[in-house]
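Complex record, four chains
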Amino acid sequence: MEAGDKRQVRATITDVAARSGTSIKTVSRVFNDEPFVRPETRRRVLEAAAALDYHPNMAARSLVRGRSFLIGLFYENPSPNYVVDLQTGALDRLHDERYRLLLFPCENARAVSGRLLQLARTSGLEGIVLAPPLGDDPQTVRDLVEARMPFVRIAPTTALDASPTVGIDDGAAAREMTDHLLSLGHRRIAFVQGDPDHPSNSQRLDGFRGAMQAAGATVDERLIEQGRYTFESGLAAGRRIFADRQRPTAVFAANDDMAAGVVVAAKEAGLDVPGHVSVAGFDDSLISRVTWPQLTTIHQPTYDMAHAATDALLALIEKRPLTPAIRLQHQLLVRGSTTRTASL
Amino acid sequence: MEAGDKRQVRATITDVAARSGTSIKTVSRVFNDEPFVRPETRRRVLEAAAALDYHPNMAARSLVRGRSFLIGLFYENPSPNYVVDLQTGALDRLHDERYRLLLFPCENARAVSGRLLQLARTSGLEGIVLAPPLGDDPQTVRDLVEARMPFVRIAPTTALDASPTVGIDDGAAAREMTDHLLSLGHRRIAFVQGDPDHPSNSQRLDGFRGAMQAAGATVDERLIEQGRYTFESGLAAGRRIFADRQRPTAVFAANDDMAAGVVVAAKEAGLDVPGHVSVAGFDDSLISRVTWPQLTTIHQPTYDMAHAATDALLALIEKRPLTPAIRLQHQLLVRGSTTRTASL
DNA sequence: TTGTAAGCGTTATCAA
DNA sequence: TTGATAACGCTTACAA
C-alpha cells in the first residue's frame, strides 16, 4: 500500500534512478544531454522516466543553477493590437528555448519608476524587455544598470546608457508620411500628437515639422492637437479639429488608433474620408485595416522589434556577442484614407 | 577583499542572519510574516536585509514548499482585443497575489491536444485557465483530470467533467440579438458563423435559428456563411453575401471582428450601413466601437470571465470552496449599425 | 521568542 | 562511463 500511495506524488530523479538501476547523476546526465552515457543506459533511464511520468522539477533546477530562465516584458497598454504584436514577437523568439515570459503591464511609466527593479527581483527575472516608453525613464534605466540586470529597450529615443536597443527611425518615417501628404497637394495639415511622455511622439512631431518646413509649408499651431495614443483621444482630437471652420485638408495622427478616431470624428461631422479630408496613421496595427477606408500608415515592425529585442536579451544574458543598436526598416503604406486634395 | 567580492553576488538569508545577529529561521519568520518575532528583532532583520538588498530566492522557496506559484493561461488568438481582455482580467486578479501568469498562445486546439499537460508539467504550472475553445477538447480535459491538474474552463459548451466553468449564455444572447433584428422589421437575415470548432459558434447559430423559427421567419440556408472569427473571414463572407442579387437586409455575425469585415464588404459593394443593410456583431470588443457606424453587439464580459476564472482557479489550487459553474450576464448593445429595414 | 538541524530535487565535484 | 556526496537557499519540525 505504501508504494501505491506514491502514485499521486510527482516522481523525482531518485525514483527514476531506482527504477532504472542507475544513479541520480546518470539520470541527470541523460536529461541534460551530457555525453558519456552508454546508449543502453540512456534507454533504460528514459524508459523508467516514461513509466514514472517523470518531469524534472524546475524549482530545483533553478535553485542549483542559480538561474530562473524567466524574462519579463514590461509595457504600457496603448493599444491591444500593439501589445499582442509585442508579446507574440517575444514569445516566438522564446519558442524552443527554456526561457519563459512573464508579463508586466504597467499603468504608466511614472508609476513603475523606481519600482521596476524590485518587481524584477522578487519575480526572479534574469532579464527584461522594456517596451516604449518605459525604456526612457532615467530612474528605471539607472536602477537596472546599477543592479547589472540585463535589459533591452525597444524604440527608445534617449541614449541613456549602453544597453542594447531596437527601433525604427520615427523621425524619418514621419517625414516620409508628411512628404506623401504634401505630394498629394495638401498644405493645411493637422497633426494629432500621442502621449507626450512617449518619446516616439516628439520624434514623429519633429519629423512632421521638418518635412513641412523643408517644403515651405506653414505649420498652423492651432492644428497641432494633443492626444494620448488611444482611439478615444483621437476621436476627441478629431472633433476639435473639425469643429473649426478653417478645416485642414489632411490629418496626420501619430498612431493608427488615434487616426481611426479621427476618421470617426470626420464621419460624425458629415465629412467624407478621403474626399473631404485625408487621414494618415502610424504603426500599421490591425485597426488600420479595419476602418473604412483603410488607413494610409507607416508599417512599424512591432513583432520584429520584440523578436529582435528578445534575441538581444538572450545574447546579453548568455554573454554572447550582440549588436548594440538594431534599427529595423519601416515602410510607408498608402491605402484608401489619403488622396489628392480637392482644392488643387 | 574577500568580503568586497561578495558585492556582485545576491545576498542570501544567511547573510541577512549574520548581519542582523540573528538566525536564518528568524529572518525567514520576518519575511513570511510569522508571529512571535519581537518588533526590535524584526527591525534589525529588515534593516540588514535592506542594507544587503536582500530578496528571497524564488526557486529555493518553490522547491521547499513544493509549489511554483505559476499559473498558465492557454488561448487561441482570434482577436487581439479579446486576448488582451482575457490577459488583463487574469492579471488583475493575480495582482497582490504571489502567483505569476504564464502565457500559452496556441495555434489551434488540435495542435495542443495531448501536449497541453506536458507543457504544463515542464513549466511547473500549478493550475490552468483554458480560454475557448481549448476547454472543449476532450483529450485535453481528460489528461488534466487524470493528472489532477487544477483547471478552469472559460465559456465551454460541453459538460466534459466537473471542473469549474465560467461563461455566458451564448444561445440566449444570440436569440436576443436576432429578436432585436426581427423587431426592426428584418426577415431576410444572413448569419456569418465563426470557427466551427468553437462551440460558442454553434450555440450562437442555434440561438439565431431558434429566434427566427419562433418568429415564424424562414432561414435561408444560402445566407448561412462560414467564417473563422477573423476580420478577413468576415470580409470574405460579406463579399459572398453581397455578391448575390437576393441581398439580405441584415447580417448577424458571430463576433465583432467578422462583423467589421462585413461592414467593409458592404462599403466595397457601395452599400450603406445601416441604410441598405444592418450589421450586428457579438463580443463588444474594441473593434465594435472603431468601425463606422459603431456595431450593435452583445457585450460579453471577457475581462470579468477571465477574472472570475482565475479567482476560481486560485480557490481550486488552495482547496477553498468555490462555485462550480459561474454564469455572467451578457448585454445587448444597440448602436449605429442596425436600423429599421427600409422595405417596411 | 528564538535557534538547530533536516530536508526539498536538482546539478557539480571528484573519485572510481 | 558511472556514482557518492556535497552544495544551492529556503521552510519546517522540533528544541530550547
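Note: Confidence is low (pLDDT under 50) at residues 1-7 of chain A.
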